[in-house]
Write a structure and sequence with these properties.
By secondary structure, the protein is an alpha/beta fold. The chain has 7 helices and 11 strands. Helix content is 26%, strand content 21%.
């Protein structure tokens, strides 16, 4: 019994630890590259990142805030909009210089490998899968089921960086590679998503200094990249593909 209690004390996070729950791909593609700036802003706490697609229950889980993709409607929880979830195609710039396989319009995807994110959280990410995306942009004659599949968005995007094919991405998952030139958007078509990325936490935590500091930092990091793109061709997701889902549990009353 004593050994068990000692183990629990050792494993219990310190009181000055700030825990962020998010998916593995958002952690890898957006949060971790910015971790140094976050730690500088929150120097009085240790940052802990938990990567999971499981439902977050703030009543029982040792989590301070969550970064999640969803509707933003979570009873009893505060959800602050971080970034849109609109989906667009990305590829290595090397693919644009192949004269035998043009990539100027979505119809040209018939010449290229399609990279698939097979995670599809709770079966509800149609805007990030090729079949609905191709339908939305009016492309026929391209088999949206062919091509390699990956367990995580970050894996599909790394394959795209390496010139293995064309992937679907959002700002949250691709912005750093786009800015650095490792990825490009071959055409301006963007399928609008009813979902977005949110900073989620219980309403009663909104006045906590650490939660407020994280919220301010995250919104400031996202702000330069969410301005409207005048060249984007925004297309709605077909209604038959709309499905609601959640990755946080409603707050318990």
């Amino acid at each position: 019994r004593l050994d068990e209690e000692t183990r629990k004390l050792v494993q219990r996070p310190r009181s000055d630890t700030f825990t962020i729950s998010t998916t593995a791909s958002i952690a890898e593609r957006w949060l971790i590259p910015r971790l140094g700036r976050l730690q500088a802003q929150m120097s009085d706490v240790e940052i802990r990142v938990m990567a999971s697609t499981s439902l977050v229950d703030f009543a029982t889980d040792d989590v301070d805030v969550a970064l999640r993709f969803g509707s933003g409607r979570y009873p009893g929880l505060q959800a602050d909009h971080l970034m849109p979830g609109d989906a667009f195609a990305v590829c290595s710039p090397r693919l644009l210089s192949d004269p035998e396989r043009p990539l100027r319009t979505p119809h040209d995807l018939c010449h290229h490998v399609l990279l698939h994110d097979d995670l599809d959280v709770f079966g509800a990410l149609p805007e990030l899968t090729w079949l609905p995306w191709l339908t939305a942009v009016g492309v026929s004659g391209v088999d949206g089921t062919r091509g390699p599949r990956f367990s995580y968005t970050s894996m599909a995007l790394q394959a795209a960086v390496d010139g293995q094919g064309v992937a679907l991405a959002t700002l949250a998952t691709a912005v750093d590679d786009l800015v650095a030139g490792r990825l490009v958007r071959p055409f301006p078509h963007v399928v609008a998503s009813p979902h977005a990325y949110w900073i989620v936490y219980p309403e009663e935590r909104s006045d906590r200094p650490d939660v407020a500091a994280f919220r301010k930092w995250a919104l400031a990091e996202a702000e330069p990249h969410i301005r409207p793109d005048p060249e984007a061709k925004i297309i709605p997701l077909p209604p038959q593909h709309l499905r609601a889902f959640t990755t946080v549990r409603p707050a318990r009353r």
